[in-house]
Amino acid sequence: MSCTRYMNVFVTWCLLTSLMTSVRSVNCTGHGGSNGGPSNIAFISITTDDLDASLKFYTQVLGGMQAKEFSFRYHGNTHYELMFQRELLEAREKGVDPGTLGVPDIRSSGTHEVRGEMVVFDNGIIQLIQFVPRYDIARPSSSLSPAFQAHETRTSPAYIAAPHVCFWVQDDVDFNDYIRQLENRSANLGLTQVKVNRPVEVHSEAQRQAVDKNHLGLTFETGDFAGLSFAYFKGPRGEQLELYRIRNQTRHNLGRDFCKRGAISTAFVDDYQDNQWKKDVGLSAKLFGLMQFGTRTDDLWRSVNFYVNMLGADLVERPLQGTNIRGDNVQYMLFQKELLDAEHLRVRPRDIGVADISNRGNMRLDHRFSLFDNFVVETLLYTDGRTLGEPAFNPRVNHSSLAYINDMYVALMVRDDLDFPTQLEILDRDLAKNGFDKHVRVNRIPDENRGGYYTFSQGPLSGMTYSMLSGPAGEHVALVQFRGVSRDKLRRALLQYGAVSSAFADTNPRLSGRMAKSCRQFLGYDIDSLIGK
């Protein structure tokens, strides 16, 4: 089937879906947002203090593929301003060294540079970056600065703007077996920080390890999320990670939202088979890729409005809207590591950012999913009371630099046929028009009143353009565009791994009919029979 035929089928599907549903969010252009803005999440970036160890985990434990053509290093004045503008402005106002605010000197004359790798999963990419000593052949190795290390000891996921990544475990996998294998394989590779919380009360690491092997994860048997299993854990360098296994009612409801938007996932591909990278790793690689990028907010509706109306996502419908989430098992699963820290430090859990959503506690958790073409952005709110009208529980750290170890950002893809500077201008205008200019602003080029961006003209990232901004709660967000060489590399990497993406016709299973059976089940009608062969 030609690319033109693909697009004809997709447009026809969109017109039919618009007529047959009353959902506002059907996206009949194949891309989200007003004016053709971003619709696809390009990658999630994680800052690490040991790039090699992180790469080992995401490839040899989770089964991703290192896209070696994208292995990169860069530095420069524009990168310095774009990546750290908020901190640089603060440093200038206070008259302090930016390094004291967690800013590595990656200027053209600086001591450090960004080193990074891309790891491909089924429906998205994890970018790993480390701020390392700048390599200079004119400088002896003995004079090189050490790798930049800015660590935050407060690890609670309830801190404002705290990020996490959630991976999607395959339906037919025993969730408890998966957790056990994840921990065992990580430990065998020397990645001893990988520890999954348990949904029961423990008071030591020994007790955590002794929890019955059939109760390692948490599964909801009833309620709005019936069929969902989840687990929270720290990654190889302490980053916050999560697991979802999605079955039954929750799978059906989520599949409905995916199909209404035209979003894609190997979880809903009719002829899905594991690739060789997963087979080589084994059980811990049995994933459908990424489920979510999560970020903690201090205003749930403002954040939803930002991701849906400014950036082009669709709000996932009820019942998949987390409301008044509480319970002892949820409390332990979300915060067990921090509860153990509080015992060790002899402080109140609240003092290190732990929200008490236990049965005896007086707080609640609410969250929403904003669906892009390949997975969701989850925004979470903790309330210091049992109703949403109570004050929010908003603990904060006193820094914002993305160079802090285990910080993250989500990068949204701008289509390659659009003018990147124009898209920044449109976004800036829309943010101001919708009252976001007090909370969200695209980072600027110094002395220029416009959104800043950088296009790589050489090296592994040649053809890629990026810009940085702060989200409504201070989270890091990027816009990226792949053109030329970088676009070709991206397509090759996706095809090599067998990944799905709306960025290319030959990586989009909706256009080839490979999600037709699943969507017929979720939506209740057969798109193919209406369109014709």
TrEMBL record:
Keyword annotations from UniProtKB, A to Z: Signal
N-terminal signal peptide: 1-25
Matches recorded under Gene3D superfamilies: 2,3-Dihydroxybiphenyl 1,2-Dioxygenase, domain 1 (3.10.180.10)
Residues annotated as domain Glyoxalase/fosfomycin resistance/dioxygenase: 41-185
Highest taxon listed in the record's lineage: Eukaryota
Protein name according to UniProt: Glyoxalase/fosfomycin resistance/dioxygenase domain-containing protein
